[in-house]
Amino acid sequence: MGGQEEVLARLRGAHKAYGKVKALDGVDLSLRGGELLALLGPNGAGKTTAIGLLLGLIRTDAGEAELFGQDPQRIQARRGIGVMLQTATLPPALRVGELIRLTASYYPQPRTLQESAELAGVADLLDRPYGKLSGGQQRRVQFALALCGRPRLLFLDEPTVGLDIQARQKLWAAIRHLIAEGNAVVLTTHYLEEAEALADRVCVMARGKIISEGSVDELRAKVSLKRVRCLTRIDLATARAWPEVVEARMDGERLWLSSDRVEALLRRMLAVDAELTGLEVQAAGLAEAFTELTRDADDTASERREAA
Ligand SMILES: Nc1ncnc2c1ncn2[C@@H]1O[C@H](COP(=O)(O)OP(=O)(O)OP(=O)(O)O)[C@@H](O)[C@H]1O
C-alpha cells in the first residue's frame, strides 16, 4: 500500500456509549481504496459498533464518521457500499436471481446478474427460492447481494461463518478479486487464518479502543512468542512447568510449545533430551499475537482499575 489512495471511510475520535458501556472509546480508523482491513477483537470489543457508525446505522456521541467524505447516513454515500452483516433477513419465497436483480437495481452501475452470481459462487442457485437453501448457500447469496452493486467499499461481518472449506476458499478468491479491482473491504472475523490470508492491515480492538494496528507481519513482530515443535521424550507436564513456556500441548506425536524466551527453552530441552529430533522453531502466528495483545490490554485495564 502506497498510502496514496483516496480515503473512502473514516472514523475520527469516535465515541459511542450504551448506558455505562463504552462500546467505542475514541477510535480513529481510515480505509483506502484497494486495501483490506481486518477488524479483530474479542466479543464485545466494539467491532460491530465501529461498522455501524461507518454504515450510518448509528450515530457517534462524539467524534466523526465519514463515508466517501460525507455523512454515512446520506443516500449518495450509501450507494457506494455493499454490506454483508452477521444476520440477514431476506424474503424466503424470492428466488436467488430475483433477489440479486432487485438489490442491484438500487445501485447506479451494478454488475450483471451473471457476473455477481459467478463471483459469489451461486450461478447454479439462481432459480432456487432463498428460504430453501442451506445455511452456507444463503451466506453465499448474501455475499452476492453485497457485491452486485459494484460497491467501492464492502463491509463483510464474519462472512465465512458456516461455509465449508471449498466455499471459504472461493469466497477468499472473490474478495481478492474485489480488492484487485481497487475496491476496499472491511472484514471482521474470528478466524485468524482468514485475516492472515487476506488482510493488508489488521486493527485489533479491545474494550472500545484500537490496541494495535499494522500488517499481519508487523503484529506478529510485536509479540516475542515463538513456536517450538519436536519429537522428544520430554513429557507435556514437565514442559508445561518450565518458566520459559507460555503454552504447551501435543501436536500428534510432537511436543508443541510456545515461548517468549526461546533460546533458553532450547538449551533446557537439549539438556533434558539431547536426542530430540524434527526440531522446528517458528515466529508466532497471528493467533498467538492476538492472544498476547488482547491479554496485555486486559492486564493494563485491570491495573488501571486497581490503581483508581
Ligand atoms: N444496542 C446496544 N445496546 C446496549 N449495548 C450495546 C448495544 N450494542 C452494543 N452494545 C455493547 O457495546 C459493546 C461493544 O459491542 P459490539 O457489538 O460493537 O462488539 P463486537 O466487537 O462486535 O463483538 P462480537 O465479536 O461479539 O460481535 C458490548 O459491550 C455490547 O454489549
Structure overview:
It contains eleven helices and 13 strands. By secondary structure, it is an alpha/beta fold. The strands form three sheets. Strands 5-6-7-3-8-9 form a six-stranded mixed beta sheet, sandwiched between helices. A four-stranded antiparallel beta sheet has the order 11-12-10-13. A hairpin with a 2-residue loop joins β1 and β2. The chain is globular, with a radius of gyration of 23 Å. The structure holds adenosine-5'-triphosphate. Adenosine-5'-triphosphate binds next to β2 and α1.
Number of helices: 11
Q: If strands are numbered along the chain, what order do they take across the biggest sheet?
A: 5-6-7-3-8-9
Q: Give unreliable regions as ranges.
A: none
CATH superfamily of the largest domain: P-loop containing nucleotide triphosphate hydrolases
Mean of residue pLDDT values: 90
Largest sheet descriptor:
6 strands, mixed
Could you tell me the radius of gyration in angstroms? 23 Å
Q: In which range does the helix fraction lie?
A: 25-40%
Please report the total strand number as a whole number: 13
**Distance between the amino and carboxyl termini:** 42 Å
CATH class of the largest domain: Alpha Beta
- Fold-level CATH name of the largest domain: Rossmann fold
Shape: globular
Give the assembly state of these chains.
single chain
